[in-house]
Amino acid sequence: MSPESGVDTSWNRETRDLYARLIEAWDKRNARDYALQFTSDASLVGFDGTQVNGQLDIGAHLTEVFTHHQTPRYVSIVREVRMLANDVTLLRANTGLIPAGKDDIDPALSAVQSMVAVQKGGKWKIALFHNTPAAYHMRPDLAKQLAEELRAKLREKPHE
């Protein structure tokens, strides 16, 4: 099943909703809500390569981040959602970050995100979230293209 087939795929919608809740929790600087999107044994790989394991440690890590940093807001483009196995999905996205007090993304903070979600007890949760810089070394054309796409998305749905 795919979104293009015209068949309503609840796993696709629910995976996208899970990702949206994660991004919303980040934008609201809510470490608790962010962590609640993960399984108890989840893994997180942050933008700087930090690795955090377990829902409780993810919450503690994000509390530290939000306490010590004025975190930027996200603009994201979901590129793909696919089912890997029964009750396991993969979401891939590109993101840009809008620094506090600004109204445009900082292209140096653009990222590629991968999220593996699992359905447990009828609820979708994140098992792995990986966020890596979209540096595109020696490919400035790709970095520029991504920045243009993210800016278009930002204009399409302005942040409050």
Straight-line distance between termini = 35 Å
CATH architect. name: Roll
Range of helix content: 25-40%
| Count of distinct structural domains | 1
Enter the CATH topology name. Answer: Nuclear Transport Factor 2, Chain: A
Q: Describe the global form.
A: globular
Which oligomeric form is depicted? single chain
Count of runs of 4 or more consecutive helical residues: 4
Largest sheet properties? 6 strands, mixed
Low-confidence stretches: 1-7
Strand residue content: 35-45%
Task: Give helix and strand order, one letter per element, not per position.
Answer: HHEEHEEEEH
Mean pLDDT: 92
Q: What is the SS-derived class?
A: alpha+beta
Task: Count every beta strand, where a strand is a DSSP E run of 2 or more residues.
Answer: 6
What is the level 1 CATH name? Alpha Beta
- Lateral arrangement of strands in the main beta sheet: 2-1-6-5-4-3
The radius of gyration computed from the alpha-carbon positions, rounded to a whole number of angstroms, is 16 Å
Structural summary, described in words:
The chain has 160 residues and is of the alpha+beta class. The chain has 4 helices and 6 strands; from the N terminus they run H-H-E-E-H-E-E-E-E-H. The chain has helices spanning 10-27, 31-36, 55-68, 140-156; strands spanning 38-45, 51-53, 73-85, 88-98, 111-120, 123-133. Strands 2-1-6-5-4-3 form a 6-stranded mixed sheet. It is globular, with a radius of gyration of 16 Å.
